[in-house]
Automatic annotation (TrEMBL):
Source organism phylogeny: Eukaryota, Fungi, Dikarya, Ascomycota, Pezizomycotina
Superkingdom field: Eukaryota
PANTHER family found in the cross-reference section: HISTONE-LYSINE N-METHYLTRANSFERASE SMYD, POTENTIAL PROTEIN LYSINE METHYLTRANSFERASE SET6
Residue ranges of the region described as Disordered: 1-26
Matches recorded under InterPro entries: H3K4_H4K5_MeTrfase, SET_dom, SET_dom_sf
Protein name: SET domain-containing protein
Cellular component aspect of the GO annotation: nucleus
Any single Pfam family the record assigns to this protein: SET
Matches recorded under PROSITE patterns: SET
Residue ranges annotated for the SET domain, each copy included: 29-340
């Protein structure tokens, strides 16, 4: 109607601050996201919030890694855990277990048909390997710098190209596909075989495939991942970097063809960048979360900064994170969660700072840390 049109033009529905929000950011009448000079984007209360109030539910799990050692005991979909008992439903082809048929069906639906093929390929690759492959990480190595990261990816670019050509030829030999005139030589096949001989890291492979599948199944959500990417040096140590580069080649060699165009250094690198600051540990719900099953990325949940004395409590309910006010919160107070797990919260200031620096790469300047300095 003409009158509505006029009023919309004169009074835009969204105030300018809302329009500037990155895709995937949480929105609520209780808080607003603003950019701060010191800690990037942060969440601030826009009204008084009573202790216990539900602040946000993050059901936007984009990527998750269940460590291989927990795959029989922790449900692939809802992450439930029965005190170390093997779950009743085990899908040997994809290497996941589930607490009930409903969880299995939901997991399958989320992966999609191409995703299921991808998990089967990875499972077949990992099954044939010895355990030593997975235990190579030396966590005390320094974080690789940008130059080292670029060099590691560059070093495999020609091998990657040869593998791509070898795989593209597969498509050409499929009965229903047109030949693409690619000549595959011994050199191409050798590059592929060489990639398969590299040591396998099942958890890094899971991370990579989970990220590639998310981009494949939800192309429009990729912007949410990019919106959170900040750190140019996301790898924890040199072993970690090389495990990613090797996993890239493994995946090029085995993934279903429709995923090959998304299996790029860019996709994997940007997920690592996202992960290095924004992932949440998936832990047991009892015993202060003493069992660490893996981790995941929930983009909307990533906007809360850390404090060692948080005013927001986060709780995992299946595959969803729920955020509640842990105490009364005044208007304009920053809403913070803690990135530390149960036991870590009790550490001394120095040890907390070390953990935060090592895992998330920042110096904590929260109330509780500052207090002790003065
Ligand atoms: Zn379940
Ligand atoms: Zn602190």
């Amino acid at each position: 109607m003409p009158t509505d049109d006029t009023s919309t033009r004169q009074h835009p529905r969204s105030p300018p601050t809302m329009a500037a929000l990155p895709p995937g950011a949480p929105t609520s009448s209780l808080f607003a996201i603003r950019t701060t000079p010191h800690s990037g984007r942060a969440v601030f209360a826009t009204s008084f919030i009573l202790e216990g109030t539900l602040i946000w539910r993050s059901d936007d799990l984009a990527l998750s890694v269940l460590l291989r050692e927990y795959r029989r005991e922790v449900c692939g979909h809802c992450f439930s855990y029965e005190h170390g008992r093997d779950l009743s439903i085990r899908d040997q082809d994809v290497g996941f277990a589930f607490c009930n048929p409903d969880c299995q069906a939901k997991w399958k639906e989320a992966q999609g048909p191409i995703g299921l093929q991808a998990w089967e390929k990875i499972e077949a690759l990992v099954k044939g390997r010895s355990k030593e492959d997975a235990e190579m990480m030396d966590v005390d190595l320094p974080r690789p710098k940008k130059k080292e990261i670029d060099a590691a990816w560059d070093a495999v670019s020609s091998q990657a190209q040869l593998i791509r050509i070898a795989r593209t030829a597969e498509r050409a030999t499929n009965a229903d596909a047109e030949g693409e005139g690619v000549k595959v030589t011994k050199q191409h096949k050798k590059a592929l075989q060489k990639a398969l001989c590299n040591p396998v890291n099942p958890d890094v492979l899971s991370f990579c495939i989970s990220g590639i599948l998310h981009r494949y199944n939800h192309p429009s959500d990729w912007l949410k991942v990019l919106a959170l990417a900040q750190d140019p040096t996301p790898y924890h140590n040199t072993d970690d970097l090389h495990a990613f580069v090797r996993s890239y080649l493994h995946l090029l060699a085995i993934l279903p063809l429709p995923l090959l165009s998304l299996c790029t250094p860019e996709t994997l690198y940007l997920w690592s960048v996202h992960d290095s600051h924004n992932s949440f540990g998936i832990r047991s719900l009892e015993d202060d979360g003493s069992e660490f099953f893996g981790y995941g990325c929930w983009p909307a949940a990533s906007y809360f900064n850390h404090s060692c004395a948080p005013n927001i409590e986060k709780q995992r309910e299946g595959p969803v994170w729920v955020f509640r006010a842990g105490r009364d919160v005044e208007v304009e107070e920053e809403l913070c969660i803690t990135y530390l797990s149960g036991e870590e919260r009790k550490l001394s200031r120095g040890k907390r700072m070390l953990t935060l620096r090592r895992n998330w790469g920042f110096e904590c300047g929260c109330e509780r840390c500052e207090e002790i300095i003065v």
